[in-house]
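Standup notes, structure subgroup. Blocker cleared on the glutamine input:
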Amino acid sequence: MKSEPMDAAVIASAVAGRKCSAVEVVSASLERIAAQEPRLNALITVMADRALERAAFIDRQVASGGDPGPLAGVPVVVKDNLCTRGVRTTCGSRMLGNWKPPYDAAVVEMLEEAGAVIVGKSNMDEFAMGSTSEHSRFGPVSNPRDPSRVPGGSSGGSAASVAAGYVPIALGSDTGGSIRQPAAFCGVHGLKPTYGAVSRWGLVAFASSLDQVGPFSRSVADMALTMDVIYGRDPRDSTSNERGRPRFAEGALNPSVRGTRVGIVREFREGVLEQPLAKAIEDAALALGESGCAMADVSLEESVTFGLPCYYIISPAEASSNLARFDGARYGLRMDAPDFVSQLLLTRGAGFGDEVKRRILTGSFVLSSGYYDAFYTTALKVRKKICAEFDRAFTSADVILMPAVSSFPFKKGNFDDDPVGMYKSDLFTLPVNLAGLPGMTVFTGLERSGLPTSVQLVAPRWQDQRLIKYAAVIEKKFGRSPVATGGCF
Ligand code: GLN
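Run returned:
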């Protein structure tokens, strides 16, 4: 295998053209995983046998003249809250530590149909609650750019897998930033699609009105390729929808943005960001300006002020209800007890970690009679205002340029005794989920320290392909994301 990074598209055409076999590609990915995992802990389960079997199947398909698909032989990683038939799907929790789903998530099916080979399930904050990937039953993930730091969360294992060169593509889920924030921390691209654009069927629910599945990659071309595979309506997810069939790969190849308007968010101009991250915004704006975009001033004042409390009411409320299904009777862990109620209490007490318990308690509180209106109903009203504010901003801009994060990745343990401090770091990502919009973290470079800078693009609902176009322009200027320690893909 070559030692420099390879795009998914390059792998797929090499496999389809018999320049290399899927088995060779997947074996190289598994070798790299074996070498790096002791350091990174990015994966909860390595699926070596299933992956090699699958790769051999693709090679047979190619040999017999069949069409192996646009992702033929491309090794991918999926977050461990996406169901994989017969392969444990833990959500980073003791509660589901040995749970093997009887079916594959829709996106897993779609990837496999396209010829991709799933090599592992990625480590994550328990039930996707967190911003550091430290809240996992399976131990913390390290950032491949600097192992003394966190990779971000909750999809930290997926971001780390792509940054470390295990795979060119990984899937994560994003409820309040869990794709975009770890992408920023690990120095890769990460896209959260429009709410309803990608099927949530087989994604273990955290907060159902906010959850979306989306990809990580090191190049915009690979991001586009993956979006072409996973985007679209699925009748099994009642909130999934479809507004046309954008051709993402075409947008990445011909990113014409001339004559469009880029909204720069007034509130993020001064003092809020670490300097290199503020400079990344300026530089990206310059690059877009050189490509013929005009800059517009937009305000997201309400989103900045009220997004955080609004999200941290709505998401725990939904989580407390979604997680009620883990009762020791139907899924996963079951503690022995003489009667059902004590079994329920013992199982939930032992199965969930502290952060998950904190969310369930908060959610139950804001939904309790007497507080429901004061918290939950108010948060729903605020959510509407945030949606309206974005809609207003999009009357003067085609796309919004803003930060994904305000700082470089945290040192491990930084928020051990400060959960609210951790929540505050989600300021720039969660308004996008509340408004159901597509958002993308775009890698813009590495500092001398080796730590990455990035920007976030946000587009109107169902304009996911716009993100790809603007990201392609930015990538042309700054270059694609390099593998952290010299990988093979
Ligand atoms: N960090 C946010 C939280 O803890 C977002 C998590 C996510 O998007 N899954 O809720």
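Discussed briefly. DSSP finds 16 helices and eleven strands in the chain.
Next: hand off to the docking folks.
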